[in-house]
Amino acid sequence: MYRDDDEGKLIGVLNDYDLSSSANALGPQGNERTGTMSFMALDLLTERGRRGKVEHLYRHDLESFMWVLPWVVLRYRDGKLVISGRPLDEWATKDARTVYIEKITFLQDFLHLDFIGFDPLILCLATDCLDVVRRERNRQKDLRYKQWERKGGVDITDIERDDAT
Question: Which of 24, 115, 116, 117 could cross-link with 78 by S-S, CB 3.0 to 4.6 Å?
Answer without folding.
Answer: 117
